[in-house]
Design brief:
580 residues, ABC transporter transmembrane region fold, Rossmann fold, 2 domains, six-stranded mixed β-sheet, four-stranded antiparallel β-sheet, 64% helix, elongated, binds adenosine-5'-triphosphate, binds magnesium ion
């Protein structure tokens, strides 16, 4: 029942197709009852000696005609019904992806990639099966069984029907008990399938590290354990499935014995004819399929609703960042102001930012430096609105960021993350990620600003070179400059560079920074870095330590102050001169 509720929207939308398929399915079941009756009649004619060639011909022709008609009807209902299951799978996958794109990092910390992949594959498949094959088995059971029973009663004998069907309720009872177990075991199997996905993903993407630490065997052993678990859990499901089949044979066998035994008795006492007994046994045979169907239905339904539950759990998780009802419209981010902001990651127990305040006018540059783990990336990420923050702590043009529409904030910001993400597409498509329509000139400009032109000229196919999964065929510095070109292409109001020049040499770095300063003179830029030369030109510099600002000022002021910044600067200058 809960399955139907969860897919109500789909059944509502496609009800016409379901009516057509179910109607035809009922028709097929009804028509299929005619041949046994005709065969029974023919036998009675033979027995009484009044079978003529004409009636026999008629019968044979009718039987052939019926078979053809049934074939066509079956073709139509099968394609219609299973077309529905393919469609529901497609729609659900689309919904899932749309949902995932709306989710913030907190969601992905709770749900692993492998589990999400399991949802998109196995679970969606199970739901599709229930809405196609499941519907078919349900209709077959109800219609098949009731039609056969009606024929038995009206054409043959009520007494005989009751006697032969005595074992059936027992079957129904056992099947419903087994069904509940199937559900529990199937949920467990799906969960370990998700774990296996995770492991496979990590092994493949981490293959280089695994090899360099000679961990292949260990990894294989660990994977073997995971796959064994998947196998065992699936085995436990199939054991239950295997229990259904013999059970139906057993019950059908019992029914047959009663049918033949008690039926012969009735023929003997002239209550029914021999032909009726033959028809009755054919009808009994026709009950096998509805009974198997019923078992299958329970099975598929349990799996489908287990999967629908799993999918629902993922789909109903709300993003923790949503637009306010009436967003304030801000046309330009003229000022960015942080007011005593403290921030703790949802999964952490220590704040990663504590009492941070700064002001930044449009066109200015903010530098953020500090030891590793001091909160630089965390500070930059606040402008991406990935995590909820206390209200009125971060203002853009004096409007709290939480009151501005999400898409508006996102349209202002270009972000070059510390861990670059490249798609396995061409260099051109990777650069044009934020602006698919960019002209070759625009791309060339962005590439030039990121000091990436020469590298591209040396690539086998220039801009059309495919970079491989997450840019495997680029060097660290090339990946960084590609990511910078991508950000510069959209010429955004606010640019966030998170340690984005760490893998290029000092000279390239200063060339890129010069380009950025020139091109973005009236735009705002925030730069976090370990190399202080990257921010010495900034209008204001924050030095963070354990999420707090320990020093701040311009380069000159910080040099005069003589604290951490001064110390680092001197050391880095000395190292640089030694390198030369
Ligand atoms: P680095 O110079 O190494 O890039 P950083 O200054 O950018 O360091 P952050 O990445 O901002 O440092 O991390 C600050 C603190 O927040 C660290 O203690 C880190 O463990 C914690 N942290 C970062 N990301 C998360 C997260 N997603 N969940 C929980 N804690 C996090
Ligand atoms: Mg960082």
């Amino acid at each position: 029942m809960s399955f139907i509720m969860k897919l109500r929207w789909f059944f509502k939308e496609r009800w016409k197709y379901y009516v057509l398929a179910i109607g035809l399915l009922i028709g097929v079941n009804l028509l299929a009852t005619i041949p046994p009756k005709m065969i029974g009649n023919t036998i009675d004619h033979i027995r009484s000696g009044n079978l003529t060639v004409t009636t026999l011909n008629h019968t044979v022709l009718l039987l052939v005609g019926l078979a053809v008609l049934l074939y066509i009807m079956a073709y139509v209902w099968i394609t219609t019904l299973f077309g529905n299951s393919a469609l529901v799978e497609k729609v659900l996958r689309g919904r899932l992806l749309a949902h995932l794109t709306n989710m913030t990092p907190a969601f992905f910390q709770r749900n692993s990639t492998g589990q999400l992949m399991a949802l998109a594959t196995n679970d969606v498949l199970a739901i599709g099966q229930t809405s196609g094959y499941g519907v078919m088995t349900l209709v077959s059971t109800i219609v098949g069984a009731s039609v056969v029973i009606i024929m038995m009663v009206s054409l043959i004998s009520f007494k005989l029907m009751i006697a032969a069907l005595i074992p059936l309720p027992f079957l129904a009872f056992v099947i419903s008990k087994l069904g509940q177990k199937v559900r529990v075991r199937f949920l467990a199997a799906q969960a370990s399938f998700g774990k296996m996905n995770d492991h496979a993903l990590e092994s493949i993407s981490g293959i280089r590290v695994i090899r360099s630490y000679v961990q292949e065997d260990n990894d294989l052993t660990a994977f073997d354990q995971v796959t064994s678990e998947v196998m065992n859990k699936n085995k436990r499901v199939s054991i239950l499935n295997a229990l259904f089949q013999p059970l139906t044979s057993l019950i059908v066998g019992l029914s047959y014995s009663i049918g033949i035994g008690y039926g012969s008795y009735l023929v003997f006492h002239n209550e029914i004819s021999l032909g009726q007994l033959v028809s009755f046994n054919i009808y009994l045979g026709m009950l096998i399929w509805p009974m198997i169907s019923f078992g299958e239905f329970i099975n598929v339904l349990q799996r489908g609703s287990a999967s629908a539950d799993r999918l629902d759990t993922a789909l109903t998780q709300k993003a923790d960042i949503v637009d306010v009802d009436k967003p304030v419209v801000v046309d330009l981010p003229k000022r960015i102001e942080m007011k005593d902001l403290s921030f703790t990651y949802p999964t952490a127990n220590h704040p990663s930012l504590a009492h941070v305040s700064f002001e930044l006018e449009r066109g200015q540059t903010l530098g953020i430096v500090g030891r590793t783990g001091s909160g630089k990336s965390t500070l930059l990420k606040q402008l991406l609105r990935q995590f909820p923050i206390p209200p009125e702590k971060l203002l853009i043009s004096d409007v709290p960021i939480e009151q501005i529409a999400l898409h508006q904030v996102k349209s202002w910001v270009a972000y070059v993350p510390q861990e670059h993400l490249l798609l396995s597409k061409s260099i051109r498509d990777n650069i044009a990620l934020g602006k698919h329509t960019a002209s070759p000139d625009e791309i060339a400009r962005a590439v030039e600003m990121a000091s990436f032109t020469q590298d591209i000229e040396q690539m086998p196919e220039g801009l059309a070179t495919i970079v491989g999964e997450n840019g495997v065929m680029l060097s660290g510095g090339q990946k960084q400059r590609l990511a910078i070109a991508r950000a510069l292409l959209i010429n955004s109001e606010i640019l966030l560079l998170d340690d984005s020049l760490s893998a290029v040499d000092a000279r390239t770095e200063s060339r890129i920074l010069q380009n950025i300063r020139k091109e973005r003179a009236d735009k705002t830029t925030l730069i976090s870095t370990h190399r202080l030369s990257a921010v010495s030109h900034a209008n204001w510099i924050l030095v963070l330590d354990e999420g707090r600002i320990i020093e701040e000022g311009t380069h000159e002021q910080l040099m005069q102050f003589g604290g951490w910044y001064r110390e680092q600067w001197d050391r880095q200058q000395m190292e640089a001169s030694l390198d030369e």
